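Exercise: predict the fold of this chain.
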Amino acid sequence: MTDRSKSTLEPCPSKAARRADVIIVVLAILTVAIATASLMLGRYPIDPGQAVLMLASQAVPLDQTWTDQQATLFFNVRLPRILLALMVGCSLSVAGAAYQGTFQNPLVSPDILGASQGAAFGAAVAILAGFTMGLVSVSAFCFSLITVGLVLLISSRAKGNHMMVVVLAGVMVSSLFQAGVSCTKLIADPNNDELADITYWLMGSLTGAKMSQVATIAPIVVAGCAVLFALRWRINILTMGDDEASTMGVNARVIRIVVIVAATFVTAACVSVSGMIGWVGLVIPHLCRMLVGPDYRKLIPASMLMGAGFLLFVDDIARLATTAEIPIGILTAFVGAPFFLYLITRRRKL
């Protein structure tokens, strides 16, 4: 067994493992703190005590000390948006980490197989057809899965290095659907809301989040993240290559397919309700590697927590910074791109 495989499979040194565990606990506390603060922050602040009582009233009967307007704002506007931000951030981050380990490429992100561009095309077509926002999300989700399925079908018929072929097929199919999005924008009537709606969706936003959206994607997100969490130690083995994985009795092809399917489903579900939110799945896993190391047993939970907290924090800025809400996809790009440039200029190896 090579030195590389030994270092990957050996248990983490106790000091490093304890440090990683402490960081994960701190990330969990920070995420809970950001979520708690987000419940109270807004143009119409809610008292901390009132927020706690309103949440508790869903479990036990309490005398109502808050107004109906506060309850409507809390349960129909603020809470769904916070839950959606947590799920989207968690999913995009863990999908990015899983893809990077599976493809053994630090520049891979959740949209590497075309899931985001396929969702964008599906949403644009649905908006152009005059569908409701609920059907727009369904169309985006379906086209996202169709795109990834097309990429895997093409790669299965191509010759050469399988992983390289998958990535190249993803790039080509993404370009095809991106051209489709441009075509829908060209066709859209600028005199009504079609073009504006397509453009706004492509920028990514959690505005108008509803509890029905949370309930719709929650089973997919929970199931997909649970699969990736359960397979986190096997992703360590995938990073060493198929030959070494086979010598350890691990079917690398099957594990890779399961990881890709799980990561694709959570990405498609999130993009279908939030639009295009970039950089989270690329930058957050790298930042977590700096904190907890490359061991996916620690990296996967760290990415989940940091991604959830990060996107919620950025969404708070998006809705509070100005009177006109900033699309969250713009803010993640402003934060993500400079930070990634910092990573590649300050570190020899990502």
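Check your answer against the key: Residues 1-12 have pLDDT under 50 and may be disordered.
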